[in-house]
Automatic annotation (TrEMBL):
This is NAD(P)H quinone oxidoreductase. NCBIfam families: quinone_pig3. It comes from Roseisolibacter agri. Keywords: NADP, Oxidoreductase. The lineage of its organism: Bacteria, Pseudomonadati, Gemmatimonadota, Gemmatimonadia, Gemmatimonadales. The keyword Membrane does not apply. Residues 10-334 form the Enoyl reductase (ER) domain. Pfam families: ADH_N (PF08240), ADH_zinc_N_2 (PF13602). PANTHER family: QUINONE OXIDOREDUCTASE PIG3, QUINONE OXIDOREDUCTASE PIG3-RELATED. CDD domains: p53_inducible_oxidoreductase (cd05276). One of its GO terms (molecular function) is NADPH binding. The keyword Phosphoprotein does not apply. InterPro entries: ADH-like_N, ER, GroES-like_sf, NAD(P)-bd_dom_sf, Quinone_OxRdtase_PIG3.
Length: 336
């Protein structure tokens, strides 16, 4: 089969389309003919040599999500038939013509989604849904979402709308706030380079946003921190008592200082989350909840994935360059 292969650590042009062996489905696994996938920050880190694939995933083929047709069933697999349309997450190898997945992690693609739309769903919607659940977000809560026009961010804004949450957001690119508003964000702030570089100014900007525009004026009940770095500590000052911060991404940096007094006095929770490293049983539970609680909303059109741009697998280098540009709104999709 054809796959996008990381030939050595480096910039996008280290990626090459190569013939590699088609994987063989093991016990209770499916072989899926991938029709679409999408890019994630983790693919960029893996390509640069900073994020090795977990055990069981191919070391040199990136790709954390897939949408496609069941092509063959491994021994003991009985939940699906050949030709069924499925989507889900993988530890790697999604940017190829075939992947193998455990049959209980696969979810049926609703008819309303064509292949590019289906490819844009899994990482963004599963991550956002799982994080809101872990944060125990409830109707009436205010949720602050950083990098709000990212793939995960726009999924979170839509989930917030259907859950009855008030969504506030940040972006460094002012035009992206309009895209987030179109999906239901109540209010957002564009953070200038000067504000982002100055921790007190960043804390003041976030605090003002959530106190002036939150549902109860007391700050954010939930923060989805897709950015990390200085944003994490600054967000503590924008949170309501008993607020919950979910640390989901580290594009602004993996280190920082935290105001422990603020956490203590506010009785705040700071919790990290990652999808890729979860054990099989936990992934099955996460995907069952996604199938039950999110997929019906995608099927009815109450929510829709946001596609920034579609590339073919042959255009993998350009796709990586596009995601790396930070200009994207929503998902960079690959058709296979
Ligand atoms: N924990 C998990 O399991 C998991 C799963 C999926 C994704 N993630 C993480 O979630 C985040 C969003 O993922 P995604 O794929 O949806 O992202 P994405 O679509 O690639 O968007 C990321 C956006 O973040 C903003 N950004 C980039 N560098 C930044 C910086 N230094 N400071 C502030 N903002 C910055 C940019 O938008 P602006 O114009 O707004 O600055 C950029 O477009 C990423 O950090 C990703 O690693 C985590």
């Amino acid at each position: 089969m054809l796959a996008a292969v990381i030939t050595r650590p480096g910039p996008p042009d280290v990626l090459e389309l190569r013939e590699v062996p088609t994987p063989v489905p093991g016990t209770e696994q499916l072989l899926v003919r991938v029709r679409a996938s999408a890019l994630n920050r983790a693919d960029l880190h893996q390509r640069r040599g900073h994020y090795p694939a977990p055990p069981g995933a191919p070391a040199d083929v990136p790709g954390l999500e897939y949408a496609g047709e069941v092509a063959a069933l491994g021994p003991g697999a009985r939940e699906w038939r050949e030709g069924d349309r499925v989507f889900g997450l993988v530890g790697g190898g999604g940017h190829a013509e075939y992947v193998v997945v455990h049959e209980r992690t696969a979810v049926r693609v609703p008819d309303a989604l064509d292949w590019p739309a289906a490819g844009a769903v899994p990482e963004a919607f599963v991550t956002a849904h799982d994080a809101l659940r872990q944060a125990d977000a409830r109707a009436g809560d205010t949720v602050l979402i950083h990098a709000v026009a990212s793939g995960v961010g726009l999924a979170a804004v839509q989930l917030a709308r259907v859950l009855g949450l008030r969504a506030l957001g940040t972006a460094r690119t002012p035009a992206k706030l309009g895209d987030a508003r179109a999906h239901g964000m109540a209010h957002g702030v564009a953070l200038t380079r000067e504000v982002v570089a100055d921790p007190p100014s960043l804390a003041a900007a976030l605090s003002e946003l959530t106190h002036a525009h939150g549902a109860r004026g007391a700050g954010a009940d939930v923060v989805l921190d897709l950015v990390g770095g200085a944003y994490t500590n600054a967000s503590l000052h924008a949170m309501a008592p008993l607020g919950r911060l979910m640390l989901i991404g580290l594009v602004a940096g993996a280190e920082g200082t935290l105001d422990l007094g603020r956490i203590l006095r506010g009785r705040l929770t700071v919790r990290g989350t990652v999808m890729r490293a979860r054990a099989l049983e936990e992934r099955i539970v996460t995907m069952r909840r996604f199938a039950d609680e999110v997929v019906p909303l995608l099927a009815s059109g109450a929510m829709r994935p946001t596609i920034d741009r579609i590339f073919s697998l042959q255009e993998i280098v350009a796709a990586h360059e596009r995601l790396e540009s930070n200009e994207t709104v929503g998902k960079v999709v690959l058709t296979v």
